[in-house]
C-alpha cells in the first residue's frame, strides 16, 4: 500500500511539473510579435484566432488578412494588444479610424 501511495504521489508531481513547463511556453512573449514576425502563409490561422470571438467574422477576417499581408503581424489575443504590431496599429481608414481589427 505504501508503494502505491508513493507511486501516485510521484506521478502527480511529474504531471504537475509537465503542466507548469507547458504553461510557461504558452505565455505571452513580446519578442514573437511585431512587424515581420509572420510569414504570409501564417496569416489565415492567426486571423482565424484574432477574429474568433467577434460576431462580424467575415469583415474581421477580410481586414485582418489585408493588414497581415501588409504588416506580417497579427496582435496576440482576440482584442486589443495592437501596440505590439505598430504597422497593424497605425494603419487607419480615410476617416481616421482603425483599419485593422
From TrEMBL:
GO terms for biological process: gibberellic acid mediated signaling pathway. Residues 1-23 form the signal peptide. The keyword Signal applies. It comes from the Eukaryota. It holds the Pfam family GASA. InterPro entries: GASA. Keywords: Gibberellin signaling pathway, Signal. Belongs to the GASA family. This is Gibberellin-regulated protein 6. It comes from Raphanus sativus.
Amino acid at each position: 500500500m505504501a508503494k502505491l501511495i508513493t507511486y501516485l504521489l510521484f506521478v502527480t508531481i511529474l504531471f504537475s511539473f509537465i503542466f507548469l513547463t507547458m504553461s510557461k511556453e504558452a505565455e505571452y512573449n513580446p519578442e514573437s510579435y511585431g512587424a515581420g514576425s509572420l510569414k504570409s502563409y501564417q496569416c489565415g490561422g492567426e486571423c482565424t484566432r484574432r477574429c474568433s470571438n467577434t460576431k462580424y467574422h467575415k469583415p474581421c477576417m477580410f481586414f485582418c488578412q489585408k493588414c497581415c499581408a501588409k504588416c506580417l503581424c497579427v496582435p496576440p489575443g482576440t482584442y486589443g494588444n495592437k501596440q505590439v504590431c505598430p504597422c497593424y496599429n497605425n494603419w487607419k481608414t480615410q476617416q481616421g479610424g482603425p483599419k485593422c481589427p
